[in-house]
UniProtKB/TrEMBL annotation:
SUPFAM superfamilies per record: Mss4-like
GO MF, any single term: metal ion binding
Official protein name in the record: GFA family protein
InterPro entries: CENP-V/GFA (IPR006913), Mss4-like_sf (IPR011057)
Gene3D superfamilies xrefs: glutathione-dependent formaldehyde- activating enzyme (gfa)
Organism: Duganella guangzhouensis
Keywords: Lyase, Metal-binding, Zinc
Cleavable signal peptide: none
Limits of the CENP-V/GFA domain: 5-115
Native organism taxonomy: Bacteria, Pseudomonadati, Pseudomonadota, Betaproteobacteria, Burkholderiales
Sequence similarity: Belongs to the Gfa family.
Coiled coil ranges: none
Pfam families: GFA
């Protein structure tokens, strides 16, 4: 299988991340922190294995999850777009905002976490596995 590269970027293009290969997984998060972070009713994220290449400057925001894990979110200091995040202490993968790829053919999510906080009018794609909180 040929090595596939994909690039995600912020709205102004200043902050970019290039990932390789197919996503490890694509999911939705309905937690209240992600709702506030994105300004939407959920976050759509794709996880990729390292290595990945970042270009541009990022502002960082450290957030603790419900189970104590810490996540470092990177967003563009110019336009404010959240582009990617990593878990502190885990350099083996990166999670990238699906919308930052600007690719309508991007694979659909297969999991939904914090489904207990999903807005009732949001419909999940068929076959999506839903978790009440974070598994």
């Amino acid at each position: 299988m040929p090595d596939h590269h994909a690039t995600a970027s912020c709205s102004c293009g200043q902050l970019r991340i290039e990932v390789r290969g197919a996503p490890r997984g694509v999911g939705l998060c309905h937690c209240l922190a992600c709702q506030r972070r994105t300004g939407s009713v959920f976050a759509a994220l794709a996880s990729f294995n390292a290595p990945y290449q970042v270009s541009g400057q990022a502002t960082e925001y450290l957030r603790s999850g419900d189970q104590g894990a810490q996540f470092l979110f990177r967003f563009c200091p110019v336009c404010g777009t959240t582009v990617y995040h990593t878990e502190v202490g885990d350099d083996s993968r990166v999670s990238v905002a699906v919308g930052a790829f600007a690719d309508p053919t991007f694979p659909a999510p297969t999991v939904s976490v914090y489904d207990s906080r999903r807005h009732p009018w949001v419909q999940l794609p068929p076959g999506t596995r839903a978790y009440h909180t974070d598994p």
